[in-house]
Automatic annotation (TrEMBL):
Matches recorded under SUPFAM superfamilies: S-adenosyl-L-methionine-dependent methyltransferases
Record CDD domains: AdoMet_MTases
Protein family: Belongs to the methyltransferase superfamily.
Keywords noted in UniProt: Methyltransferase, Multifunctional enzyme, Transferase
Record-given protein name: Methyltransferase-like protein 13
Gene it is expressed from: LOC112904144
Length: 277
């Protein structure tokens, strides 16, 4: 059953998600990887006792997987009451303290600083599915809600494909508001997608940590398999490296499938990572 919309702007509509979850029924749909592929990174950035907000939970098993390994303070929200109803039905008997609430992430009613961590897997990407005039306005509205809900020292963990307009909104908002930014490439999620025969897009985990007062921007990347962290000078450098990764992945996919298509030219822009400590 293909439930993908005809045009990507539908990803931003509540009606699309209601229909998606109605048609999908009890069968879960996991965006950008499951707990197993993400767990190594999530465990590093979330303490077991922390209060966690899952933004746009859909029918992903991420909240219940985290609950089952010991995270007991989780609230998951979604704009679709249909999926929230399904999730309550699925979990209320076996995990009664795992909370699912119907709420718009653009208009949340939580207390200021109520959470230590907000996890977003595919929700920012759905809110701003393509470049458009209102991208900055919408992303800023969303980030302000997150900023309010997260306490100092807390983290916004965003799992995303980081299309250029999405990355731009993150880079424009967080570093300028005293949040440290670290971007990790999730090779585990990509490997799983490749093994199941899907077209692989680089998957990134963005960890934004809220500080009271950072006197300089801290921008870090961990995008190689040897897991070394590099610190970058500015947001343009970050954007250049992420674009480079996305283009190389695209080219390598296209080259592998060259015999199926006709090309006149394939081009790739290469950036050099310059570390500074
Ligand atoms: C790409 S899906 C990701 C679902 C889930 N996080 C996962 O990983 O499988 C995006 C989710 O965001 C939800 N969503 C979209 N706009 C939202 C909003 N304004 N507030 C809360 N949830 C929203 C959708 O209903 C959908 O469940």
């Amino acid at each position: 059953m293909n439930l993908l919309p005809k045009t990507e702007d539908k990803f931003a509509s509540k009606e699309y998600w209601d229909t998606f979850f109605k048609k999908r029924g009890a069968s879960a749909f996991e965006w950008y990887g499951e707990y197993t592929e993400l767990s190594k990174h999530l465990h590093k950035y979330i303490k077991i006792s922390e209060r966690i907000l899952v933004l746009g939970c859909g029918n992903s098993s991420l909240s219940s997987d985290l609950f089952d390994v010991g995270y007991r303070n989780i609230i998951s929200i979604d704009i679709s009451e249909i999926v929230i109803h399904q999730m309550k039905k699925l979990h209320s008997l076996i995990r009664p303290s795992l909370k699912f609430i119907h709420m718009d992430a653009l208009n949340m009613t939580f207390e200021e600083g109520e959470f230590s961590v907000a996890i977003d897997k595919g929700t920012l990407d759905a809110l701003i599915p393509k470049e458009s005039a209102d991208v900055i306005e919408k992303a800023t509205k969303y980030f302000k809600q997150i900023d309010k809900a997260i306490k100092f020292g807390g983290r916004y963990i965003c799992i995303s494909l980081l299309q250029s307009h999405v990355l731009r909104t993150i880079l424009d908002y967080f570093p300028s508001k005293s949040w440290m930014l670290r971007i990790i490439r999730c090779f585990e999620a990509e490997k799983k997608a490749a093994e199941s025969g899907q077209k692989v897009f680089p998957v990134f985990i963005v960890i934004c940590t809220k500080f009271k007062n950072l006197n300089q921007e801290i921008l870090e990347l961990n995008v190689t398999t040897n897991e070394s962290i590099v610190r970058l000078k500015n947001t343009e450098e970050v954007a250049g490296i992420i674009l480079n990764i996305q283009q190389s992945e695209f080219i390598s996919y296209e080259v592998k499938n060259l015999n199926k298509k006709e090309y006149k030219e394939i081009s790739l822009d290469i950036y050099q990572i310059e570390c500074y400590f």
